[in-house]
Design a protein that fits this description.
alpha+beta, 27% strand, 4-stranded antiparallel β-sheet, disordered N terminus
Amino acid sequence: MVSRLTNRLEGHPRLQAENSEQDAALLELVRSLGVAGSVFHILNEVLEQGEDLYTLLCDDQLVISFEVPRGQRSLQAKEFVEVSATEYRHKMGQGKNRIRLDETLKNARALLAGGA
């Protein structure tokens, strides 16, 4: 039972271009928006009928949110919003989502320190 609880509260998944075409396309889209960074994690991904909504952690400093309309050949972002990771964490409040965010921030810092 302990391992199940621990697994649920692990950090969010990391975007890695070498692992999937979707990750590579998202990273290319983020970079085209002028966001520089070396470590990206998916904090939230909502797949809807007309668009997909993404919230990403960039390194350990910035949180970005945007929509990607479905049915287009190349990915294009709409409604792009960015906030500091500190502000995002503060707005989140307490609970399991904040624990997961803290774990993700810790993982991002470790990857950045290790030369991801």
